[in-house]
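Kindly inspect this today.
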Amino acid sequence: MTDEPSAGTSRRWFVVAVALILIAGLAFAVGRFSTFGAQSAATAPGASSPEAGFSRDMQVHHAQAIEMAMEIYRKTDDDEVRVLAYDIATGQAGQRGQMYDWLVQWGLPQSGGPMMQWMEASEAGHAHGGTSSEPMTDEEAHAAMGMASAAEIAALRAATGQEADCRFLTLMIRHHEGAIPMAEALLELGTDPRALEVATAIKNGQAAEIDAMTSIRTRLGCTD
């Protein structure tokens, strides 16, 4: 028996990869043409704004979710897991493209400042240790955001069958649970209507996906 993906699975994975590129590009293009010039330099969020911090940190967060979703989509035999992975990968690729474009429109760099520092004034930031006098390292921030470690990603890649499905669901539930406080912090601190709209979509959408993934874990009998 070989662990190499079948030709059909490889083709499906290629279709998803192309779809992600197209969705991210479309989100970027739509943002550029629909909102170009909508905000002046005086009204656009600044470099240390909650909107800028959210856009930067959530792009990093979404990138890992897309990576994990594409990995399980490529090899799962469970139709429900495959559909969920596709929805996560494509949906978060589109949102990531929007956030990239916001920073471009605001004239801000795609990175800057310690991760999660923008959340310190929010209730969610306090719950994540944001009152510390020392900023978090990226590794500490990733853990606070529910992101998988390098070892956990490696284990997901090595796993097959139901073990892979269960690992994915466990990691993605934790990942989503880390995103919701970030969205709540922006809803508390932010003012940009577009960013608040996306934060609301993330909060509601990922809460619903957590419920769906919890149900799938029960069906599969996951114990990890």
Remarks:
- The radius of gyration is 18 Å.
- Residues 31-38 have pLDDT under 50 and may be disordered.
